[in-house]
Amino acid sequence: MKFTKMHGCGNDYIYIDCFKENVENERQAAIFLSDRHFGVGGDGIILIKKGKKADFEMVMYNADGSRAEMCGNAIRCVAKYVYDNKYVSNTDFTVESMGAVKYITVSVENGKAVSARVDMGAPILKSSDVPVNSEEQSVINQKITVADRQFAMTCVSMGNPHAVMFIDESPRDFDLDYYGSKFECNTDVFPNKVNAEFARVIDRKNIEMRVYERGTGETLACGTGTCATVVAAILNGLVDHDVTVHLLGGDLQISWSGNEKDSVFMTGPAVTVFEGEINI
Fold first, then answer.
1. Is pLDDT of 280 > 90?
2. CB atoms closer than 10 angstroms to residue 137
3. Which residues are part of the catalytic machinery?
4. pTM above 0.90, yes or no
5. 229: which of 9, 80, 124, 256 is 20 to 30 A away, CA to CA?
């Protein structure tokens, strides 16, 4: 089976062109291929298929074989793949993931897509839709105690659930594995588990953040998590409406008006690492 290894800000996946390849057991393929010792190595796999509601469909599996609804970094790489491989000739097109359609514009240099701007849709803030178990209609700056520490969390869905915590120390010094894993699996609060972001506001236009993702653990970047973090920061009055988020793997630019009905826009790079072939 042929594959392409790609990343967006270090959030790396194995991309399989299902116009040309057939994957019989997608879940098992994700577990095997994602293994960084015995497989290709990645945060999961992405299957690129013909869209039902959009031009293309992105089917995403985490490294543990679980399905995921959306990945902002991956959808930019899908956009690069279909443009670079001439499945489209225009720079504007659509990609769906689990039924949600995203509108994408790629930026091109020397005939290749190098970055993409994605309309990520409006944030979901209603507690039952995130989902997060709460008596409040939405969870904004709500206190939660995890292990030995109290956090103030804001919960946002960008197609998948996120809990955003703003902390005083640099996220680079934060014990992400310990607290992130406890947030992820706290199904009393998060019935579908959760992606946990720990962020520090640098100034009105800059945030630094690390993320612990469901089914994968820490990744170098998370596009939906970056969007959720900026939404949370704006809701809490911490930043302006155009923000650069500094992740371990690079920077993403996020824009949101602050109106709950308006879309969040994400702009960032997409990189092809290598192509290969593996028996599976």
1. no
2. 10
3. 71, 222
4. yes
5. 80
pLDDT value of position 129: 98
Structure tokens at 13: 């996946």
Could you read off the pLDDT of 28-38 as tens digits, one per residue?
A: 999 999 999 99
Express each pLDDT in 213-250 by its tens digit: 999 999 999 999 999 999 999 999 999 999 999 999 99
Q: What is the CA radius of gyration of the chain?
A: 18
β-strands 44-50, 11-17 pairing:
parallel
- Tell me the CB-side half-sphere exposure of residue 214, using CA atoms within 13 A: 25
CA atoms in the 13 A half-sphere facing the CB of 235: 22
**Nearest C-alpha neighbor of 11 from the set 250, 272, 219, 275:** 219
**Max Cα distance, the chain (Å):** 54
Concatenated DSSP letters for 66-94?
A: -EES--HHHHHHHHHHHHHTTS-SSSEEE
- Return the H-helix or E-strand segment holding 177: helix 176-184
Q: Which residues contact 131 (CB under 8 A, 6 or more apart)?
A: 157, 161, 190, 191, 192
Interval 9-65: pLDDT, tens: 999 999 999 999 999 999 999 999 999 999 999 999 999 999 999 999 999 999 999
